[in-house]
Amino acid sequence: MTFNRYAPHLRATLALGLPLVGSHLARMAIHVADTIMVGWYGVTELAALVIAVSFFNILFFLGMGFGIGVMGLIATAIARGDEVEVRRSARMALWLSLAFAVAVVPAMWHSEPILLAIGQEPAVARLAQDYLRIAGFGLIAMLCQLTLNSYLAAMERPQVVLWITLAGLPLVIFLNWVLIFGNLGAPALGVRGAAIAAIAVQFSQLLAIAAYAAWLPSARKYRLFQRFWRPDWPGMRAVFMLGLPIGLTMVAEGGLFVGSNVMMGWIGTRELAAHGIALQLASITFMLHLGMSNAATVRIGQARGRGDGRWMRDAGVTVTAVSAVIAALAMAAFELFPRQLVGLYLDAAHPETPAIIGIAAGLLFYAGLFQLTDAMQVIGLGLLRGVQDTRVPMVIAAVSYWLVGIPVAYGLAFVAGIGPAGLWLGLVAGLTCAAALLMHRFWRGLARGDWTGEAPAV
């Protein structure tokens, strides 16, 4: 009887979540390809890429709140049959995403002084700025693409996004091979070549997804791009008020990891390169949970639109259980095969490779420790975004990551003298705190009827 109750939710969650997971993994695979190929080019270049991507991601996290937040709004509007709300929310999210991306490009153009001010080595900071002066323009494509992804996911049409994202992987590998290493007569551009490859793929994917969103027969009634230039100020305000806390939440979480990158840079270039590899491996598994979190937002948003508390509860239990299973499998992989996983990123003939593998393999032990809590914190955020609860989660994230995670990381790494392992124990502490508080908030609110207006459960 219990299985029959949850089976429809499991099928629906996997049908929606797996393409979203695939899209995130494909997008992550593009970043992995960059990291591996730049790592083959040089250790200093790899360290520069780690810092540059961290800088880029902080701005991306702040701007992505509009694209993520609109997913729950659209799912709820579709459940209510409100076509106007679907159009105005998606369109104004695109406006806000585009405006934000254009506004922050100058920060990436002049990033070297900022990186030097936070203690990065001059050679690393210079190369990171070279990367960001090109790759920074890709933020426009990434944020608009994210909004369109949410628009399609809310309509339970994520499959084409997956295929478009997957198509970018061989393209970026080919362009990296040509531009990073100087093949086929091209100059060897190093990190600048990786940046050129990245923006070429990002804008190609944006055009493809926009074309699909305009063509999709079931979406034509929303007329997303018709008179696109017309503002909808109330709609923009609604998306802004929902999306800004999400962006700040993402910055708080991303800031925990970027802060660990910066502090690892204080320890040394080899340690930073090893840290970047271990963190990217952990990020790959995070993409699995992020896809399920997106599915949770859509499923919970649909339940909210119908005012169905039991449906919401069952959908929430299902997506949480799926993510917990994924976390257990990831934990096993990190603990059983650390050196093999790290070795994929480095040239075996490079003299520094054995030392970097030793450091990174040790850090994967701690990555295994936070798999479950990392899963639960992002699922908790997805559940809460489905009920359009974003402000309190923003506070929870700030407290967990900046008042718990960063101080613990710094204290263990530098005050207690533990070094790189101490930084990763700080990550474990911050993520565990966030997971407990976010999950408690959603399930307590559901039991009290806060999210559906129903009477409290007894």
Termini gap: 21 Å
* Number of individual domains: 1
Q: What is the molecular shape?
A: globular
Average pLDDT, all residues: 88
Structural class: mainly alpha
Q: Kindly state the percentage of residues in helix.
A: over 70%
**Strand element count:** 0
Low-confidence stretches: none
What gyration radius follows from the Cα positions, in whole Å? Answer: 21 Å
Q: How would you spell out the order of helices and strands?
A: HHHHHHHHHHHHHHHHH
Sheet of most strands:
none
Number of helical segments?
Answer: 17
Strand percentage: under 5%
Main location: membrane
Membrane topology: Multi-pass membrane protein
Keywords: Antiport, Cell membrane, Ion transport, Membrane, Transmembrane, Transmembrane helix, Transport
InterPro entries: MATE_fam (IPR002528), MATE_MdtK (IPR050222), MdtK-like (IPR048279)
Question: Care to describe what's here?
Answer:
This protein is mostly helical and 458 residues long. Helix 3 packs parallel to helix 7 (138-154) and helix 4 packs parallel to helix 10 (233-267). The longest helix has 40 residues, at 2-41. It has one domain (2-447). The chain contains 17 helices and no strands. The model has no long low-confidence stretch (mean pLDDT 88). The protein is globular, with a radius of gyration of 21 Å. The two termini are 21 Å apart.
